[in-house]
Design goal:
It contains seven helices and 20 strands. It has helices at residues 24-27, 43-49, 96-104, 122-129, 184-187, 220-230, 251-265; strands spanning 3-6, 12-15, 40-41, 51-58, 61-67, 76-79, 86-88, 110-112, 133-136, 150-153, 157-159, 165-168, 177-181, 190-194, 198-199, 206-207, 209-211, 216-217, 237-240, 246-247. The strands form five sheets. It has a seven-stranded mixed β-sheet. A six-stranded mixed β-sheet has the order 11-12-13-14-19-20. A hairpin with a 5-residue loop joins strand 1 and strand 2 (12-15). The chain is globular and about 50 Å long. It starts with a strand and ends with a helix.
């Protein structure tokens, strides 16, 4: 039996003879069901129509994407450390080419994901590299394909290999998480944020939302909570969830002033 994949959000569901009747992730207010209705595919079909794309972004950081664009269109990030590599966020396509490339870069010690919109085929990735998938326990209800590889963590931070740290920020989802990489940006530190902190075409600013497709804002306390969560960590660079959006330097000031602007704009 296949594990069907939602074409709109990219989430893979448990084995079934027929496609699921609904995608709970898409029916949530933070995502959407297209007017044309829910559609499904499988990993085998996706491998026939799409290909993996891997790009080096800076020393020890690689982007992993899918071409042509599929579902939400995000790319994942592979962080290399002397103690082992971590895949940050995930994409729906996993094929022989990307498996070979990741093994060539040293394999993985763990997969960590910012929030449910990027859970995608995380179980396939975990099995391919024999590693756990680390998700915040606050978002357990959004795991559409339960598996022994899924490890739920609790609290506000979780230390990983190589000095990396998962930081729960909340906001977009209750368990919304970012990854702190102290060796990034030539040792000045980097935050890998998915869209918990959303990067923008104008790199002087970032933003925060409960729902991006439906334009539902966060309230002031949640935005301020995100800033407080990352305050203890040194960082000068931000990487979001898309290839062309990043803040090369001065990221801490960007986050602080963006949060202040956002709170003023919503009258907080």
């Amino acid at each position: 039996m296949p594990c069907y994949i939602c074409v709109t959000c990219g989430s893979q569901f448990s084995h079934s003879d027929v496609p699921p009747e609904r995608c709970a992730i898409c029916e949530d207010a933070r995502q959407y069901v297209p007017s044309s209705g829910q559609r499904w595919t499988t990993l085998d079909t996706l491998r026939a129509t799409h290909r993996s794309s891997v790009k080096r972004l800076e020393p020890d950081l690689y982007g992993v994407g899918v071409e042509p664009r599929f579902a939400i269109g995000q790319r994942a990030l592979l962080v290399r450390t002397p103690a082992g590599n971590v895949l940050w966020d995930c994409v729906s396509l996993i094929d022989d080419a990307v498996i070979d490339i990741v093994h060539g870069l040293g394999g993985l010690t763990a997969i960590a994901i910012s929030h449910p919109h990027y859970y995608t085929t995380m179980v396939e990735w975990a099995r391919a590299f024999d590693v756990p998938v680390l998700l915040h326990a606050a978002d357990r209800e959004w795991v559409m394909r339960p598996d022994s590889a899924v490890e739920l963590w609790e609290g506000e931070t979780r230390a990983l290999t190589g000095g990396l740290t998962l930081v729960r920020c909340g906001g977009h989802f209750e368990g919304g998480t970012v990854l702190h990489w102290p060796a990034g940006a030539d040792g000045r530190g980097a935050l890998l944020t998915g869209d918990i902190i959303q990067l923008l075409p104008d790199a002087r600013w970032v933003s925060f939302m409960r729902s991006y497709p439906n334009l539902i804002p966060l309230d002031a306390p949640r935005v301020e909570g995100i800033v407080r969560a990352v305050e203890p960590f040194a960082y000068d660079r931000l990487y979001g969830a898309w290839w062309d959006l990043w803040v090369q330097s001065g990221a801490r000031a960007v986050v602080t002033r963006s949060a202040e602007r956002y709170v003023r704009a919503i009258g907080g």
